[in-house]
Amino acid sequence: MPVPIKSHADIAKMRVAGRLASELLDYLTPFVQPGVTTAEIDRIAHAYQVDVQKVVPATLNYAPPGHRPYPASICTSVNHVVCHGVPGDKTLKPGDILNIDVTVIKDGWHGDSSRMFCVGTPSIQARRLVEITYEAMWRGIRAIRPGAHLGDIGHSIQKFAESRHCSVVREFCGHGIGRQFHEEPQVLHYGRPGTGLALEPGMIFTIEPMINAGRAAIRALADGWTIVTADHSLSAQWEHTVLVTADGPEVLTTSAGAPPPAA
Predict the structure, then answer these.
(1) pLDDT of 219-228, one tens digit each?
(2) How many CB atoms lie within 10 A of CB 187?
(3) Lower CB count within 10 Å: N or C terminus of the chain?
(4) Closest by CA position to 91, among listed 120, 116, 65, 70
(5) Which domains does the chain have, with CATH numbers?
(6) Are 237 and 208 in contact, with CB atoms under 8 Å apart?
(7) Which helix (H) or strand (E) holds 117?
(8) How many angstroms separate the CA atoms of 107 and 213, rounded?
(9) How far apart are CA 175 and CA 192, in angstroms?
(10) Whole-Å CA distances, 109 to 13, 16, 56, 174, 180
């Protein structure tokens, strides 16, 4: 499948969708508190998307082949949950780490981003994992330029994470995005420099490494969506949607409340 090259008009629409995804995460930030359930955060997110932002929650009833429809408007992955955690009656506790993954559809275009949140004061290990994963994502982003390869992105992420004695989940990856939630290319978070697709201006894709404090092995829960670490170790994930420009990467999922780039 060819990788879509976005036009100037397409890119303008993607900037709007990306900003709205980031602003949704800004809005949810103060609600991440001890005693709140992930289902409550999902209800708040859904209302904000539909009533305020006037966007469609892309995850709600999303059903790729072989999956039952996803039942919520965001994904909430707590502690050892790697990704696709389904909001429910789990109450957040002090020390938890939480990933909130959001995708909005505005005028037919998708904006996709996720952030890590610390509930109260996390353990040293948990905070370290969150920080390592954030820097790993940014190292991948900074590998983007025309003529670079997808393998350069994955290598940058893998080399940094493994140098910090963490592991990279290999079963899930970043993806092209635009009018479709998931387009070509697949963006692996591991790899060899100089391999894979050569990058061109106008490509838009996500970078969303999932980094485990323990081993990389994962398993799926019975709900058909939630993925957890096989050894019950902590996992973290950050995600941005990024445009390849002639001058390098442009992060589309930014807003007033977004964390600054890693130093």
Answers:
(1) 999 999 999 9
(2) 24
(3) C
(4) 120
(5) 8-251 (3.90.230.10)
(6) yes
(7) strand 109-118
(8) 39
(9) 18
(10) 7, 9, 10, 17, 7
Three-state DSSP state, 190: coil
> Helix (H, G, I), strand (E, B), or coil: what is residue 112?
strand
On whether the CB atoms of residues 38 and 131 are closer than 8 A, the answer is no
Q: Is the peptide bond before 185 cis (omega within 30 degrees of 0)?
A: yes
Residues, the chain, total? Answer: 263
Under 8 Å between Cβ of 229 and 90:
no
What are 157-182's pLDDT values in tens digits? Answer: 999 999 999 999 999 999 999 999 99
> Among candidates 200, 193, 197, which has minimal Cα distance to 185?
197
Euclidean distance between CA atoms 123 and 257, whole angstroms: 24
Virtual torsion, Cα 43, 46, 51, 56, nearest 10 deg: -170
* Paired tokens of 68: 């039952």
Q: Which residues of 107-127 are buried (b: 16+ CB within 10 A; e: fewer)?
A: eebbbbbbbbbbbeebeeebe
Pull the structure tokens for residue 214.
């323990």
pTM higher than 0.85, yes or no? yes
82 vs 10, 56, 234, CA distance in Å?
Answer: 31, 25, 8
